[in-house]
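Q: Entry one of two.
A:
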Amino acid sequence: MSRIGKRLISLPKGVEVKAVSGEIHVKGPKGQLKRRIPPKSVVTIDAGGVSVAASADAGRDASKMQGLTRALINNMVQGVSKGWTKTLELVGVGYRADVQGSKLVLNLGYSHPIEYPLPQGISAKVEEKQTRIILEGVDNELLGETAAIVRRFRPPEPYKGKGVRYQGEQVRHKAGKAGKAGAGAK
């Protein structure tokens, strides 16, 4: 049985939730989101908040879908009330970022700058000597996907750790050729 799925989702001030023909619509001060409700979940909206239950004839996977649906709706509520942020760090000599309108321009050691158009609903700020990118948005799923795409342009390499990484990400370093041959014992 899903423990997370049984919890009630409390609604902050200014957030409205509606269930319309198999979809859930969440509207708040930061924006609005909608998502299809999985068929094995039943969403109930009342004055206290939103609760999710498994349908009676759902079978084995009912509690999994109940927990998933509850988590997705909770993320939507948090997104339209507070918003979500992801921070990326650029590590490497000459690596920098800039925001030009709705484009993120990255210089990552290639012969050309990379221009990435940000999806609608995602905004970016560049801080701290153009080496820290802060992505903000209402949709947690779209924000995570955007951060992963930006990271994929130059993932951190294991020898010097250069590349684009999430804030706080630990990169495991390899010794390299000199470390294997014992060149450090000269």
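Q: Entry two of two.
A:
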Amino acid sequence: MTHADGKTSLLSSITTLKSSLADFIEPDFGLLNELLRLHVLTRRQAASVRKKETVFDRNDALLDHLTSPEGQSSEEQCGKFLTALQRTGQHHVVNFITQNGGQKHK
């Protein structure tokens, strides 16, 4: 999905890059707490993510919550996700998302 300015939406970018993102997001050192503070995840959703066995499974669960049609998926929620990534020092992930996986938006 593209906006009137020709840029791809954050939700669309995150959804498209989901399988790659799961490989390098670090959910365990403040990200989930930040997402709770920003009201991106509920306590129940965060607990569901935390109980997954591997970091990759936790990332998959996190991204599923963020992009699920029945969830609170929105550009605003995705923007808050980027804010949480920045606040937890994961600027490389923000850059990966905003640059469409290393490809500049057309």
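A: Comment on entry two: Residues 30 and 88 are 6 Å apart (CA to CA). The mean pLDDT is 88.
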